[in-house]
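User: Show me a protein chain along with its predicted structure.
Assistant: Here is one chain, sequence first, then structure tokens.
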Amino acid sequence: MRKSAQFLCLLMLSSAMTGCVWWEDEPEKEVFQGAFDFGKELPITTWYHYPGTPAERWAVDATDAAAVLASNISADFSGNSTPFFSSATYYGTGFDTFEPTIGVTSSGAIFFTSWNGLGDGTHIIRSTDKGQTWEDVGPFGQIDEDSGQTPNSNDPYIYVDKFTDRLVKFDMHALAAMFVEFSDNDGDSWSIPYPVEGYYVTQDHQSIASMPPPPGVTAFHPVIYVYCINTGSPAAGAQCSRSLNGGLSWDVQRLGYPSSSFPQCSGLHGHVAGGIDGSVYRGNPSCEGPAVYRSLDGGYSWTEHTITTDVGMQDGWHSHEVATAVDDGGNVHATWIGDDLKPWYANSQDQGETWSEPMMVAAPGVVETGFPTIFAGSEGRVVLGYIGEAQDYDEENGTGGWSGYMAIMTDSFSERPLITSVAVNNPDDPLDITPDCGDVRCGGFGDFIDVEIDDEGRPWIALAHNAAGFEEAIIGTLMEGPALYGELSYLEPLPEGGNSTLLLG
């Protein structure tokens, strides 16, 4: 009896001690709660989460201490991993678009492609008040007073050279001939169209990047321009050309991959990106998986660097899309849609030689995605853009459909970086209701979308609002959130936009 009583006392004491130990760990829970206590309610379109891994392909809610512990994640909410209250919106432009691309100059002016079809080519629209109002800046007057310089463009494309602030407009005429036009005064006037050397055979998805001349390359302009096109043929693969004189003339197109990789397993690619060290990168699958192709001589020759063999590529229309970006430190960032239809991300700190473990970056609840795009700011700060849906559109209930997303990381080199994901549209205002929109062409999205960071560190994403029936160009951004350039601080708040700002119709 005495032994039983002693055992019972020990059991009670043990329970009490256990309780004390558990109670002493309670501050960890408070840390979790306090990190996301911003003094105001979080929008339903904002999520804080950790990325999935090849072994655990799901988002981990960063606000749920138990979920973080279960995934063996060491939570750190200090330094560059500090969470910021974030909310997003979009603004209508009053112009249509197709395969939207954007660029932002140092003045803060935003430029967006407006596709006007055969006979009127591509116009560029401009906003000088952070997306609130837009105007058509042409270019005008080269062919007639009402058309752009090139009367037809199958793929409109605008690029802002971050090193010189030059606007570079690419037009692909009849999927064969390429023309380039420039503006050095925020679109107030434009150069004549300069023809670009090429095979003058079927071409697609032109993209351009700029970079300082790398060692051993003599240029006659502050930067080198490199552009690449898709041929649509695995045998031919991507073709690239460079300009050493500011785009006035171009080299004959060359293979955008090493000859040892001939033939290519895919002939299509995402946007190219140039680095401050003179390197240039082109995303494209290798025969092993998602890959990045690198040139250190201004696009003259290339090497192949497979990112991972653990996560495949989406098997569909956009299986080719590997998007690349280079941050201010010369680090390379890449994203693609995986075989699970989710967006994946990896980075390299040695010019693409080695890569981080791939990370699944979709917001919680998103089950299908498409049109991956990426841009990088200060070292380790990056924004990924994509469209995604949590459920197919239900016409009877008016629920579901596709939204525009940005995944923002301010410390992407962490083993499991904290991600702030935002949707720019509300759930009851889908951008598209087409089944499998991310895997097929749909409305103004075409084949791709675009994302950019302005000089104050605010991310902007170029999208189309197809559900309204007019394929209106819309631009999404953060109303509140962290700056992706300079000091890690809050951005200046912007007014709420949304469906009420649509102007077409």
